[in-house]
Amino acid sequence: MLPNLEGEISFIKDQVVLERIGNEIIIISFDSGKYFSAKGIATDIILLIQNFVPRANWESKLIEYYSTDVFSENKIQNFRKILVENNLCASIDKLETSNYDLPTDFQRDKNDELKITIYDDLQDIIIVDPIHDTSLEGWPEKESK
User: What pLDDT shows up at residue 2?
Assistant: First the structure.
């Protein structure tokens, strides 16, 4: 079933960890073992989602820092679709309204590109279960030959 991308979305707290470092956000999915890097406007949109800012209020938050073609409706919908398809976000029925203001501690490029980079080179390490995947031979448990 396809998610309703017209409504609100929220990060799936049990599966996802986010950390902002300057103008970049790193997202780790413990479900897939993938991690994601978002910079600039992508960071700001992720912060808006993380801080429960309704979709209808995003333009008023972003217009101060970016040109309107950078965050066109089509680009935002495609970005949201990537977040949902990678099980980072899910549709939610109701959103608590937030008065969150974007951080001012990093410089933005008015013509930034809305994108997220997906990495899967650490999947083996991220999805290892240290409680169940250990043995006397070590961690992670090595396959028997």
Answer: 47
Residue 69: the pLDDT is: 86
Write the single-letter amino acid at 24.
E
pLDDT along the chain (145 residues), means of 10: 69 93 94 94 96 91 91 92 95 81 92 93 72 61 56
pLDDT at 124: 75
What SS3 class is residue 123?
Answer: helix
Of 21, 9, 15, the residue nearest 50 (C-alpha):
9
User: How many CB atoms lie under 10 A from the CB of residue 5?
Assistant: 17
The 3-state DSSP class for residue 120 equals: coil
The rounded distance, in Å, linking the Cα atoms of 107 and 93 is 34
The DSSP output letter for 56 is: G
CA distances from 43 to 15, 19, 119, 120 (A): 19, 10, 17, 20
Report the C-alpha gap between 112 and 69 in whole angstroms. Answer: 10
